[in-house]
Specification:
This protein is 53% helix and 21% strand. With 94 residues, the protein is α+β, with helices and mostly antiparallel strands. The protein has one domain. A three-stranded antiparallel sheet has the order 1-3-2, with no helix packed on it. β2 and β3 (86-92) form a beta hairpin. α1 packs antiparallel against α2 (40-68). The longest helix is centred in the middle third of the chain and has 29 residues, at 40-68. The protein starts with a strand and ends with a strand.
């Protein structure tokens, strides 16, 4: 079980930034399911792109959490509502 609580909100521009990263990350994850290591050049490019995108994604959350002072929790993570920019803290029960 988990609890969910709204802890902040971001601007439309910030929504667009994280949504682009989110969609790219998901697209690369799907692509990774069909690309094999046989195609070494494409595989290496995919791995590199996945690493860079994941880093940017994590940096966005870290930067915004510091900027806005969002509440956090050791067993929690933040989620965004792409429609209105609400940021929720989702905490998984132990």
């Amino acid at each position: 079980m988990e609890t969910k609580k709204i802890v902040g909100q971001v601007t439309p521009e910030e929504i667009a930034e994280i949504q682009t990263l989110f969609e790219r990350k998901n697209g690369l994850t799907e692509l990774a399911k069909v690309v094999t290591a046989d195609n070494n050049e494409l595989y290496e490019k995919l791995v590199k792109d996945m690493g860079e995108t994941s880093t940017k994604f994590q940096q966005w959350w870290e930067q915004k959490s510091k900027q806005y002072g969002w509440e956090s929790h050791p067993r929690g993570n933040w989620e965004i509502n792409f429609q209105n920019g609400d940021i929720s803290l989702v905490v998984k029960d132990a």
